[in-house]
Amino acid sequence: MTREAAISKATAYHDDGRLIDDLRRRVAIRSESQVPSSRAHLYEYLEREIAPALLQMGFHTERFENPVEGGGPFLVAERIEDPALPTMLTYGHGDVIRGLEEQWRSGLGPWTLIEEGERYYGRGVADNKAQHSINMAALGSVLDTRGRLGFNVKVLMETSEELGSPGLRAFCERERERLRADVFIASDGPRLNARRPTLFLGSRGALNVTLRAHFRDGGNHSGNWGGLLANPGTVLAHAIACIVSRSGEVLARELVPPPIPDSVRAALADCPVEPIEGEPSIDDWWGEPGFTRAEKVFGWNTFEVLAFRTGNPDNPVNAIPGEAVAYCQIRFVAGTDASALVPALRRHLDGNGFGTIEVELSRQSLMAATRLDPNNPWVRWAAESIERTTGVKPAILPNLGGSLPNECFAEVLGLPTLWVPHSYAGCSQHAPDEHVLAPILREGMQMMAGLFWDMGEADLPRSRGGAGAC
């Protein structure tokens, strides 16, 4: 009954194919939250896959409807060994992005797990089915080895994350007592790079906005009206150029955050961003001048143009269009007042002579920014455990560059939040040919078994709703 034995059991769970068998079944369930006709599969995933696996480990499970209309169901499970022991809350999402069947490479498809070398392809393998499957299996390995966990576990599984997690905050507010814990540990998103274990402590927020230049209905012949009618595409392009420079610097300075805290800057100094083969090369001339790569993506705010449309791009005609639309996104870090972003953007456009540009939210909801202080004792404990298992000092990111509903756990439930990702940036998440890497799956099983073993032995900090942030 040793730590090494638990890690050995977890390794065997990967090596003998049981983890892949779990993934094969789970990938086959078309749990697309963005597709109304797939709604029944959201319930199927919870009831056929997650609940039975947790019941087998002695968890009590209960399904809840989403308090927001259109949101998918939740599953809450708990295994309470002793109320006096530390309690961990963990999380996963069973829904996936649209399958996009017709766009996958020949021989691949979203609903069948396909192995090619060290890659396993299928929709949801990276986001998020492999990630929570690893954590569940690692809990099982510790339980089988020790006969008990040595701590209490609560599980929250949602099925609407790919819709922006509607209802999750309201559910956490309503069920605050049911979900009370000492720490939050879960897995989503990518590692800093495929070779280095990573621990991230929050996420950047995301606010989607639409910029619209509507000058008139319909188009007008460019020969008859060119030079007389303002072109909304040209005007909108110049409006965007006053928000962000040609080299990616945010010119609308009310959109940028306060200076990067020293503890965050120190943590990011140990997190060099180096793409591996198959990932895009970095444009070092792009972004906030004077910042490191890590500071640009993990420590700062960005303004991105996601799509731009004017006229008819698929069948252009010789006419001045009446309207142009740009779909944009502001990614922002903790310390940014999200409620002030749209008013600030409005002021900036007005101040630069673009009062005709309409600004509106693309979505009514946003994902807030969160960040746990890298010096928090839970962070030191988790980093030491991961290094003990892998022999590699993990990258500690104060926050992920992307966005997760972490505010529900950090702010509503008041928990220190630790994320241990089991994917990498080149996994084609949300795109065709989504995949995971076998070496990361295997190491993920080992890391989580070691982490959960240590949780059952250590004299851990107790928070019960308190967490430090920076």
Compute the number of strand runs.
Answer: 19
Tell me about the biggest sheet? 6 strands, mixed
Domain count, please report it. 2
Distance between the termini: 39 Å
**CATH level 4 superfamily of the largest domain:** Zn peptidases
Helix fraction bin: 25-40%
Shape: globular
Describe the fold and architecture.
The protein has 470 residues and is of the alpha+beta class. The chain has two domains: 3-203 and 369-455, Aminopeptidase (3-Layer(aba) Sandwich), CATH 3.40.630.10; 205-257 and 301-361, Alpha-Beta Plaits (2-Layer Sandwich). The chain is 31% helix and 19% strand. The chain contains 13 helices and 19 strands. It has helices at residues 3-15, 18-27, 39-56, 125-146, 168-174, 222-225, 232-243, 262-268, 293-298, 341-351, 377-390, 407-412, 438-455; strands at 60-64, 74-79, 87-93, 114-116, 119-121, 152-158, 183-186, 198-200, 202-203, 205-214, 220-221, 302-310, 319-320, 323-332, 358-361, 370-371, 395-397, 417-419, 435-437. Strands 1-2-6-3-7-18 form a six-stranded mixed beta sheet, covered by helices on one side. A four-stranded antiparallel beta sheet has the order 12-14-10-15. A three-stranded antiparallel beta sheet has the order 4-5-19. Strand 4 (114-116) and strand 5 form a beta hairpin. Helix 1 crosses helix 4, helix 1 runs antiparallel to helix 13 (438-455) and helix 11 crosses helix 13. The longest helix is centred in the first third of the chain and has 22 residues, at 125-146. The radius of gyration is 23 Å and the shape is globular. The two termini are 39 Å apart. 46% of the residues are buried.
